[in-house]
Design brief:
- By secondary structure, the protein is mostly helical.
- 78% of the residues lie in helices and 0% in strands.
- The chain has one domain: MFS general substrate transporter like domains (Growth Hormone, Chain: A, Up-down Bundle), CATH 1.20.1250.
């Protein structure tokens, strides 16, 4: 894109349905409120299972292995990307999608409830089985949350206009971060210091996910037109699968901006592949204590909340693209900060290691904006699930290398792996600078 004015001038929502009729505006306001409530509850539950800190620490408590730690990003992104790619057609066919959001939220809660029940009996007697169970549950949860996020994205694209999604993100992330930090200080901190703390952490996660499942019941979701649903419904499961593959290929071939966005997502995946190794580096190389986990969790969530106060309004006024460019670029700071800290004396480095989790707090916002940008690229609401699932698949594709990243950490050390990851992320930022601004394109058209 050669014209930079889209980064400087506010971009009004050209086709905002809320300006058409008061009843439509009222429906959007109600739906926005309940979507925000849903995200707040999920965010509070999520702090008990923070991917960058708590989940790697849980696995390390059972078996300390860089290779197994490297499997976590594979299971995480593979589950969050491949099942949604397969489920995109089914989600597009659903006349009302809120019931799928309820079901997947309850399934998320069930995963952690099962882990809470099994942890105590297996921890002392069969740690090997516990490690296997943890990885299986983690993989299952990742698949469920992948479909859940696809359904949520489709609902958001259907119920909230592009110019209001940033505001919804601000409210849900900022309020959710404050409540999540309060819950972490009151509950997570004490539990991390207890021998039987992990089952309590898992039970709290399950509880908040179950609470979140209530919010979609209050959504005022109009049914999709039967004709639109029939157009995307093939005749048999095999036809659906082959038709889905053909549709994905056709979509990618027809939309160069989507291809470019997929390339950015693939580079950004380096951020997600490295995150399990940060807390291991602090523990193994710097000698950090278990109490540091609480500080890091709170720091990351506070950074996410504060950053959303800027990212949300800017994305509403100036477009999602410019915010995505900056978030991807700033994400390269995290591995570079860890590398810089590794050059300091251990006592100094461990005291300042919380700084690592400030730029890491941008990751949740980046993933939300990848979704929001994919929604804006899609030519229609019927294409929302397909576009979101394709970007998700691009995020997951490089994760086949994640166990090799873990092995590289074991054999080469943390420093060269972190520097190489930063280079890959910066390459993605360079590609993202050439993405178009969908709202500007629609306005010009």
């Amino acid at each position: 894109m050669g014209d930079d004015t889209t980064d400087l001038e506010p971009i009004p929502p050209a086709t905002d349905p809320t300006t058409a009729a008061p009843d439509i505006a009222g429906r959007e306001a109600r739906n926005t409120f309940w979507i925000e409530c849903y995200q707040v509850a999920v965010r509070v539950g999520w702090i008990f299972k923070t991917e960058t800190i708590i989940m790697p620490a849980v696995l390390d408590a059972v078996v300390d292995s860089g290779f197994l730690r490297g499997l976590l990003p594979v299971l995480n992104r593979g589950g969050q990307s491949v099942p949604p790619l397969l489920a995109a057609g089914m989600v597009a066919r659903q006349a009302r999608k809120k019931w799928s959001l309820v079901a997947t939220s309850l399934a998320m809660a069930g995963c952690f409830a099962a882990l809470a029940a099994a942890w105590g009996p297996l921890q002392a007697t069969r740690p090997d089985l516990l490690a296997i169970l943890f990885l299986v549950v983690y993989a299952t949860f990742s698949s469920v949350i992948g479909v859940n996020q696809l359904v949520f994205a489709a609902l958001q694209g259907k119920l909230i206009s592009p110019g209001h999604r940033g505001r919804a993100m601000v409210v849900s992330v900022a309020v959710g971060s404050v409540l999540a930090i309060a819950a972490a200080i009151a509950l997570l901190g004490p539990w991390l210091g207890q021998a039987d703390g992990f089952p309590k952490i898992f039970a709290a996660t399950a509880l908040f996910f179950a609470i979140a499942a209530v919010a979609p019941l209050f959504l005022d979701e109009p049914a999709d037109e039967p004709r639109a649903a029939a157009e995307v419904q093939p005749s048999s499961p095999m036809t659906r699968f082959t038709g889905g593959l053909a549709a994905w290929r056709a979509t990618i071939a027809a939309d160069r901006a989507l291809v470019r966005l997929a390339a950015v997502a693939a580079c950004f995946s380096a951020v997600l592949m490295m995150f399990p190794h940060y807390q291991a580096f602090a523990r193994d190389r710097l000698g950090s204590a278990a109490g540091s986990l609480l500080v890091w969790v709170c720091t990351q969530n506070a950074a996410t909340g504060l950053a959303s106060l800027v990212a949300g309004p800017v994305s509403d006024r100036r477009g999602t693209r410019i915010v995505l460019v900056w978030l991807v670029a700033l994400s390269a700071v995290t591995p570079l900060v860890v590398t810089a800290l590794s050059l300091l004396p251990h006592a100094t480095a461990v005291r300042w290691f919380w700084i690592v989790y400030v730029p890491l707090g941008l990751n949740p916002l980046s993933l939300k904006l990848f979704t929001n940008y994919a929604l804006e690229l899609a030519p229609s609401t019927a294409e929302h699930p397909r576009y979101v699932s394709i970007v998700g698949a691009a995020l997951a594709a490089p994760f086949v290398l994640s166990p090799l990243v873990g092995l590289a950490v074991d054999r080469l050390g943390f420093r060269p792996v972190f520097v190489a990851g930063a280079v890959v992320i910066l390459a993605g930022a360079a590609v993202s600078a050439r993405l178009p601004e969908p709202r500007q394109a629609r306005r010009a058209g």
